[in-house]
Design a protein that fits this description.
6 helices, two-stranded antiparallel sheet, 150 residues, mainly alpha, single chain
């Protein structure tokens, strides 16, 4: 480019065009966003500054957009009937907090959904675990009095 007036701008003029503090322009040069011409003043290309302004405006517009909606968590497979904690709670006639507590303690089998946070339960395995716990409880009660009488 030639030295015609208007093709080159100073750091302060670039800051005004970009809408930033003038101390930010040298940082943009160090980052490689702008390239000054050596040993001449004004040293920044007006065209490059305007292009950078447009790029920065587009980035700001994209940042301002709401994030895309997340898909609901999916169960691990389609071969089994997977339910959430609310359905297990209704099935066992307890609260959802009790279901999560039993799952944390290892008393109810579960697997995590695609989001890595949602617990999914196979209702057949939940029923089996509840029957096993009930059998253990009733056997312990049945053995207790029989051994005392013996």
């Amino acid at each position: 480019m030639s030295d015609r007036a208007g093709e080159w701008v100073t750091v302060r003029e670039a800051a005004l065009l970009l809408g930033v503090h003038y101390s930010a322009v040298p940082k943009m040069v160090r980052r490689g966003d702008l390239s000054p011409r050596p040993n001449k003043r004004p040293s920044l290309s007006r065209q490059a500054v305007l292009e950078l302004r447009d790029v920065r405006a587009e980035r700001a517009r994209l940042r301002a957009l709401p994030p895309p909606p997340k898909a609901p968590p999916a169960p691990p497979d389609d071969e089994h009937e997977w339910v959430d904690a609310a359905a297990v709670a209704a099935h066992l006639n307890v609260g959802a907090a009790a279901v999560h507590q039993r799952a944390r303690r290892g008393r109810l089998p579960f697997t995590l959904g695609s989001d890595g946070r949602t617990r999914f339960f196979r209702i057949d395995l939940v029923e089996m675990a509840v029957r096993a716990q009930e059998a253990t409880r009733t056997k312990a009660i049945a053995d207790g009095p029989a051994s005392v009488a013996g």
